Amino acid sequence: MGFIDLHLHSTCSDGLLTPEELVAAACQAKLTTIALCDHDTVSGVAALQQSAAATGISIITGVELSVAFRDHEDIHLLGYGIDISNAELLNNLHAFAVRRANRNREIIAVINTRLSQEGKTPLEVAEVEALADGVIGRPHIGRALLARGYVRDMQHAFDQYLVPCNVPKFYWPMDEALSAIRRAGGVAVLAHPTTISQDLLLLTDLITELQMLGLDGIEIYNSLASEADMLFLQGLARRLDLLVTAGSDFHGTSAEDQIGKGRGGIRFSDALLPPLMSLAAKRAKARQAA
Known about the structure:
By secondary structure, the protein is an alpha/beta fold. Helices cover 44% and strands 17% of the residues. Strands 6-4-5-7-8-9 form a 6-stranded mixed sheet.
């Protein structure tokens, strides 16, 4: 039996490791299959594939879209097996990146106002951009604050500056996000579902509705779900005939954040892969025939 991790983040969004460093960490963790699911970008996937080519680690292409649905904001939707060269997807991601870049520049401006009031030298956008390989995220701003010595650690950065100086985020509409993943030949999976709501009746209704809209699976095993959460999600997946996936949501930003492991140190078996890979292959074949 091999072990997998289908939810990793790199410096191309808000992770602390480059795609190449993620491959090295996956080797050290003795993983056999990984997926890079950076937020609203696929810019690191090719580097991950190239770095993994000589290691024997299998790569599943991926992305994590920030989605809004009804009254719920910042639902995270994973797309697996996507064609990372799909022009429509890339155009949509680029438009999202422009909106996000503008938002993060606004956040930097608000933070700089506070820094000036505190008698501190404001941040430069260029120094934040230098910490990112792709889209700037709030963790990159936090790292710039840390490098300046303005904060003790990342948690202090969020508490002192990033949360109070936040600017509202733009989200994909759920129907557009599901369609974008499907048109790129991908499989749509709901990330860490119990972070959306701890009301299990509400969550059941929500996931049932999303399945009717085109959701293919749910990420049952992750670093945020309790044992009770996972048992609930297992039953729901069986009842709705949804795919089951697993991933650490690794960012590398805390000691508890471990590649290849979920909450309580659980590891993710490659026995979960066949249904996912089968559907991804079916989607790819249908897309080629279209």
